[in-house]
Amino acid sequence: MFGINGGELLILLLVAAVVVGPERLPAYAEQLAGWVRRLRDLARDTKERVDAELGDADVDWAALDPRRYDPRRIVRDALLDDGKPHTSSRPAPPGARSAAAAAPAVAFAAGPVPAGPDAPAPFDDEAT
Known about the structure:
By secondary structure, this protein is an all-alpha fold. Helices cover 45% and strands 0% of the residues. The protein has a domain at 21-54.
């Protein structure tokens, strides 16, 4: 604490008691006790308010771990969402292909997609 060891702290407290004097020391001790009580009440009230605002204390902190963030899995789960939550806790190996990557590309053309290297590229006329 501030580079002061126990012996130095004891000497500082003794010097403060001598400087303040025995007639004012009880008033200062009572004032310090009041501050400590108010600080403890403030901490308790703050903790209660935070608990009330957050609601359930059952937060799955493992699911929020940034080391588990895999954008490929998130996109795959969003594209192949069947209404059930996916609980894949491990990202796919680097060489593995997902089902979304193995599926054929989705064409956004309004009609049939022209085939051939000389055909114009399909486009979505509703896109911005």
